[in-house]
Design a protein that fits this description.
This is GAF domain-containing protein. InterPro entries: AAA+_ATPase (IPR003593), AAA_lid_NorR (IPR058031), GAF (IPR003018), GAF-like_dom_sf (IPR029016), Homeodomain-like_sf (IPR009057), HTH_Fis (IPR002197), P-loop_NTPase (IPR027417), Sigma_54_int (IPR002078). Residues 212-440 form the Sigma-54 factor interaction domain. The chain is an alpha/beta fold and 541 residues long. It has helices at residues 2-31, 36-51, 78-83, 91-99, 158-203, 217-229, 246-256, 277-282, 299-302, 318-330, 356-361, 367-373, 390-404, 413-421, 428-441, 449-462, 493-503, 508-514, 519-528, and strands at residues 54-61, 68-73, 85-86, 103-105, 129-138, 141-151, 236-239, 264-268, 283-284, 296-297, 307-311, 332-333, 342-343, 347-352, 376-379, 410-411, 446-447. The strands form five sheets. It has a six-stranded antiparallel beta sheet, with helices on both faces. Helix 1 (2-31) packs parallel to helix 5 and helix 13 crosses helix 15 (428-441). The protein binds adenosine-5'-triphosphate. Adenosine-5'-triphosphate binds next to helix 7 and helix 15.
Length: 541
């Protein structure tokens, strides 16, 4: 009797030793940073070798089918692994996945819920076989089910086996958690790496593309054309919707041309009153008209030797078109009130978002001037036509804005995908605005998808009410044109107003306009919501 007791205590000690060994080895496996599947397979192997808990398998969700499938197993054939597929809630495994409760099947032959799907009964020992299935949690979420076969006639108590299995299930959960963290961090670092590379490429000497970002075939075709015509003096007509980069291209053309050290002068034809056009373009002598107190050099003369960028050329009034045509043909200008012709050496780059032929047909643009300007037409694609470039643009803008606002934010891959999948109806300027809101709105250095969604929402609010879901066009009271409807103060407006004020460099009038508020309404909100107004700066976008 004495001997039997000491024999059984030796056996118990041996089992405890094996348990310890299993845990030590499992921890060592985890610290080796193996792929989760490799580490889990080794642990299942140890469970079988050391503790006799056989045919261990880890079942997890199958990303493609949505059902459950064996992800890792030890002691199962390939065919058995393939068979181990369960619908949600199906069998013992499905139930553990659904309820998160451990299931113990004392005798697999006696429990109708035990499906024997992966391993056929005939391949198992004849004696009574049990099956234990436990949930594997990652951050409290049930991500998998650990299952093992156990012979009932064992020395070890079921309670002892259960305890070890619980610890093992927890270790497996940790393995997947570490993997998720590593994957997340790796993706972030990869993203950071790409941003830094993009920023470096922007600055690399000899690889200057003048801040024109994009790899889409349409954009590359436009850039090719630009490079071809840059060294010549040919007149270029840039065609594209608003905010597609016409000014950026015009500047790039100038910087690539032999005129790069001479002035680049921009004239926005849509912003000049008709009566002032001639004086603006060609200048005037002192006394040329009542308010001409002194001589003024016009834009053509200012651009002498350089490039004159005529933006929104479609808005040029007809009488001025005649004069422009003459300058382009004869390369001389005449100041208002002047007595002679002044030769000018100017390369003209014009741009428009309008259909020039339609303007010609409507009698609003001279055909001869159109031909003069349209020597080299370059069409710039809209953002809609090149969704593949959104990622590159976002990274570039984030790095630009980090510098401008002295921030160091990093856009997470999820946030980037959110921006890429947004159906950008508008232009690059709109994308820039949203990215700027994101950089300003984000509280931490990591921009997540939620911040992106908020920025997209606030951008939508800056648009006229019709653009909002459920806005006037959706059935509400339409605001009268030109009259801003009353908008009550809402708590979440604070961030929106602060961001817009920062974006507008502290300019309250522009901020009010962008937010569709009157100046008074804005001031009231600034006061009520206690918003600090940034000191004014020049906004160049
Ligand atoms: N390919 C691009 N890469 C990087 N930034 C771009 C690109 N295209 C446009 N942008 C940026 O988008 C903004 C709008 O561009 P830009 O002013 O050149 O457009 P535009 O076509 O002249 O617009 P508009 O017709 O409204 O005057 C600018 O801040 C510009 O730097």
């Amino acid at each position: 009797m004495q001997k039997t007791m000491s024999e059984s205590s030796t056996a118990r000690e041996a089992l405890v030793e094996q348990e310890k060994l299993l845990l030590r080895e499992s921890i060592r496996l985890i610290s080796r940073g193996l792929e989760p599947e490799k580490a889990v397979r080794e642990i299942l192997h140890l469970l079988s070798e050391l503790l006799g808990l056989n045919r261990g398998r880890l079942v997890m969700r199958d990303g493609t089918t949505g059902g459950l499938a064996i992800r890792v197993a030890y002691g199962l054939t390939r065919a058995e692994i393939r068979r181990g597929r369960y619908a949600p809630g199906e069998g013992i495994t499905g139930r553990v996945m659904q309820t998160g409760e451990t299931q113990i099947v004392q005798d697999i032959d006696a429990d109708p819920n035990y499906l024997a799907r992966a391993v056929e009964r005939s391949t198992l020992p004849h004696e009574t076989v049990s099956f234990i299935a436990l949930p594997v949690r990652v951050d409290r979420r049930i991500e998998g089910v650990l299952g093992v076969h156990r012979l009932r006639s064992r020395q070890r108590a079921l309670g002892a086996d259960l305890e070890v299995l619980r610890t093992v299930a927890e270790l497996i959960g940790q393995i997947y958690k570490v993997r998720q963290l590593v994957d997340k961090r790796t993706a972030e670092l990869a993203e950071e790496n790409r941003s830094l590379k993009a920023a470096l490429q922007q600055r690399a000497p000899g690889k200057n593309n003048w801040g024109i970002i994009g790899e889409s075939p349409q954009l590359l075709a436009a850039l090719d054309q630009l490079e071809q015509v840059a060294p010549t003096d040919a007149t270029v007509l840039l065609l594209g919707e608003s905010g597609t980069g016409k000014e950026l291209f015009a500047r790039a053309l100038h910087l690539q041309s032999p005129r790069r050290d001479r002035p680049f002068v921009k004239v926005n034809c849509a912003a000049i009153p008709e009566t002032l056009f001639e004086a603006e373009l060609f200048g005037h002598e002192k006394g040329a008209f009542t308010s001409a107190n002194q001589q003024r050099i016009g834009r053509f003369e200012q651009a002498d030797g350089g490039t004159l960028f005529l933006d929104e050329i479609g808005d040029l009034p007809l009488p001025v078109q005649v004069k422009l045509l003459r300058v382009l043909q004869e390369r001389v200008i005449e100041r208002l009130g002047g007595r002679g012709e002044i030769p000018v050496d100017v390369r003209v780059v014009a741009a428009t978002h309008q259909d020039m032929m339609a303007l010609v047909r409507a009698g609003r643009f001279r055909l001869d001037l159109y031909y003069r300007l349209n020597v080299i037409p370059v069409r710039l694609p809209s953002l809609r036509e090149r969704p593949g470039d959104i990622k590159l643009l976002v990274r570039y803008f984030v790095s630009q804005l980090n510098q401008r606002h002295q921030r160091n934010v990093l856009i997470t891959p999820a946030a980037l995908s959110s921006l890429v999948s947004h159906p950008w109806p508008g232009n690059i300027r709109q994308l820039y605005n949203v990215v700027e809101r994101i950089v300003l709105l984000s509280r931490s250095d990591e921009i997540d998808a939620a911040t992106v969604d908020l920025a997209l929402l606030t951008e939508a609010r800056g648009l006229p009410p019709e653009a909002l879901p459920g806005g006037p066009s959706a059935g509400g009271d339409a605001a009268l044109p030109g009259i801003r409807s009353y908008q009550p103060v809402a708590g979440d407006e604070r961030a929106l107003i602060a961001a817009e004020l920062a974006r507008q460099g502290g300019n309250k009038s522009r901020t009010a306009r962008a937010l569709n508020l009157t100046l008074r309404q804005l001031n009231y909100r600034v006061e009520v919501l206690d918003i600090a107004v940034p000191s004014r700066r020049k906004n160049n976008v």
